[in-house]
Structure formats: structure tokens, C-alpha cells
């Protein structure tokens, strides 16, 4: 399993109907390339097949960036309307950039069209790019998730067993302990407010970041309730099987289940199987920073 940056140049002459004198019509060559940072299987391929009015792109299921270089003798080109919303289109003076969202395994294959017009003087040539995208399989989703988890843990000390008497090392350089399948915890600060008991209401604040952004060298804006003058309330009842508590997933609950005290702050690397119940089908791993508090009442 390895990260690939897939570059595929294909040259396709657009032999398509022109308006105006054929001698004056734009003469085009489309240089097609794809850069995809989310391709983690050697079995994934991108194909572009030219035809007499443009070409067909068989896009992989992952979100990817595709580029069409519009080369030849012409003055300018314009995009036509009607591109579906799952294809984001932008242009420069000589390029069409396509950003295509991923399509998951429980969805159907989909087809969309990008139409454009190229002008030279009064002559015009119309091009149509047909995009056919098949969904990502569950196996491919799991493979990508594991890639990000392993990459995020690279260079860190990993301990796959819990310490005796839950005597965790603490600090910014502390090891990451495996606390559940696809969940690793680092204790940054050890609390001093006593440990919760079964039936206690535990409050927590968190910020989380997509691991895909971390692997690319930075975190984009996180989400959660750690910041703000009046943060939203998130809590669970320790030991409860009610959905209001279990909705957060085993990773959020586990530090308190292990007896860590209120006031503890942890970092966690969490796969979808240990994350929010409502998000398990997305196979999206996160980095969490979580702090736990007792009720003020």
C-alpha cells in the first residue's frame, strides 16, 4: 500500500464540427492529465478515450483533480452551462480544471458532461468531455483509511497494550496507546479532579481534524466545540448504552472508561470504526484533541 501521484498525459485531437469556414476554424489538441493524491490501489486506473467531438474520461471513485490543456490555434474559449454540481470547474486562459468529488460504494456510477466552445475569429468549435465515474469499493475505502492512520502514527512511539494499573506516560512526547481497534490515545495532561463513576455525566470539549489534511502537511480548519465564548455542550453518561452517549463512538468514551480523571486532556488518532456512529460509513479518520470535565452542578 503506497501513496501514488498519478500523472497520465494523453493527447487527443478534437476533430469536431466547426461553425464558419473550416480553414478558419480553431485547430485544437487537448493535453489531458490527472493528478490524484487519493489513489491508494495499484488496480485503480484513469482512462481518457478521444472521440470525434471531445472524449470520455473514466474517472476513479476518489476525489481527484483533472486538467485539460487546450492547445492549438485559437483566440479564447468559454465554458457552456449545465455541468453537474459534483464536478467543480475552473479555467485559466488555456486550461480547464476539473475537481471531482468521490462517490462511495453504496452509490451508483454517474455520468456528467463538460461542454466548452473555442473561438478563432468568427469561427467556433464545440467540445464535449463525458465523465463516467464508478464508486469506490468498501475495500478501497478501508485501505485508504489505514494508510492515513499508519502515516499519522509514523515517527511516534506506539504501545499496543495498556499499561499496568493504567499508569500512562503523560506529555507532548508521550506515546500513543492503542485503546481500541483503529483508536490510539496520547495523554497530554493528567487531570486532578477525580475519576468519574458509572452513571456520572461527563462533559467534554473537542477539536478534530481530518487526517487527510494532516498528511498533506497541514491541518485545515478543525471542527468541534473547544473554541468560542459559549461552546456547545457535549456529554455522555459513563457506562450508558443510550444513543445519546454511544453516538460519540468508543474513542471519545474510552479515556473515562479507563479511569482517567476529570481535567485530563488527550490527543487521539481515530478511525471511523471508533468514531462518531453517524459517520462510520464514510471511512474518514481524524486527529482529535479532547478535554474532559465534571458537571458544575
Features:
11% helix; mainly beta; 40% strand; six-stranded mixed β-sheet; disordered N terminus; elongated; 19 strands; 297 residues
Description:
This protein is mainly beta and 297 residues long. 11% of the residues lie in helices and 40% in strands. It has four helices and 19 strands. Strands 12, 13, 14, 15, 16, 17, 18 and 19 form an eight-stranded mixed β-sheet that branches. Strands 2, 4, 5, 7, 10 and 11 form a six-stranded mixed β-sheet that branches. The chain has a five-stranded antiparallel β-sheet with strand order 1-3-6-9-8, with no helix packed on it. 28% of the residues are buried.
What level of helicity do the residues show? 10-25%
Strand content: 35-45%
N-to-C CA distance = 51 Å
What profile does the largest beta sheet have? Answer: 8 strands, mixed
How many runs of DSSP E, i.e. beta strands?
19
Compute the number of helices: 4
The rounded Rg comes to 26 Å
* Coarse shape: elongated
Topology pattern, helix = H, strand = E: EEEEEEEEEEEHEEEEHEEHHEE
Structural class: mainly beta
Q: What does the average pLDDT come to? A: 83
Which stretches are low in confidence, meaning pLDDT under 50 for 5 or more residues running? 1-18, 37-43
